[in-house]
Design brief:
Radius of gyration: 21 Å
Shape: globular
Helix content: over 70%
Number of helices: 11
Strand content: under 5%
Largest sheet: none
Length: about 240
């Protein structure tokens, strides 16, 4: 559970460097009622992303769990899912890196800070982005293949989504505590992201993919060692041989 929690947190933090959510929040921060509007936007993003992940995990995920009722098999499926998640993340990192110049030239997504509904903006952006949220799918695959009960799966999804909206929470915190300096701070962040966000995103996704693969390999190796040990203990019992 702790290893899976670490993996979920890692992927959530990598996925949080998402220009589709950060950029609109930064532009909302430059409009009227900035703190309230960014907070509304953050809540909408969190709610839609969590709901989408729960539907996937508790729908197809239930089929995975019912197909692998044996605990050892469930552990193996979880570690295989970690490997798959790692390779998916590495492939996504390669795609982002190969398209980094094109992505940078397109600039960050822009939002009109005078739009009436920040909630609708957050919900619509997240709903559109969800079908292509490959890091999220990687985390969901690891969670669904873990063999955990529904309550702990929902907990892991909550943790992931808290990590995902951390940059948005940081923007709200800056608007709350930085006072007059908030415009300068957030403006500098926006300028940095406009220049470097594809490079940063590719590097983070690659790092988390490698970590996921490491977790999967270690888990499979430990599981194999445990099964071999149980096999020999069973043989000793059959032969009435004591160590």
């Amino acid at each position: 559970m702790l290893r899976l929690l670490g993996l979920v947190i890692s992927i959530g933090l990598a996925d949080s460097i998402n220009p589709s959510t950060i950029a609109p929040a930064l532009y909302l921060a430059s409009g009227e009622r900035p703190r309230a509007r960014v907070a509304e936007f953050t809540i909408a993003v969190f709610a839609v992303y969590l709901a989408g992940g729960a539907l996937i995990t508790l729908g197809p995920g239930q089929l995975i769990r019912s197909a692998v009722p044996d605990l050892d098999v469930a552990h193996t499926v979880r570690h295989v899912a970690e490997l798959v998640a790692g390779f998916v993340l590495i492939a996504a990192a390669v795609l982002v890196w190969r398209g980094r110049h094109r992505l940078r030239s397109r600039g960050l997504p822009r939002s009109n800070p005078k739009r009436k509904s920040s909630v609708l903006l957050g919900a619509s952006i997240t709903a559109v982005e969800l079908p292509t949220a490959f890091p999220y799918f990687a985390a969901i695959a690891a969670i669904a293949g873990s063999g955990l009960d529904v309550e702990r799966e929902i907990f892991l999804l909550l943790v992931f989504n808290v990590c995902f909206v951390l940059p948005l929470i940081a923007i709200v915190g800056t608007l709350t505590f930085a006072g007059d300096r908030s415009a300068r701070i957030l403006g500098s962040v926006r300028e940095f992201l406009e220049r470097r966000w594809p490079h940063l995103l590719a590097g983070l996704i690659l790092l988390i993919g490698l970590v996921a693969i490491m977790f999967g390999i270690i888990g499979l190796a430990a599981g194999t060692h445990g099964r071999v040990g149980r096999f020999f203990r069973h043989v000793r019992r059959l032969l009435h041989v004591h160590p």
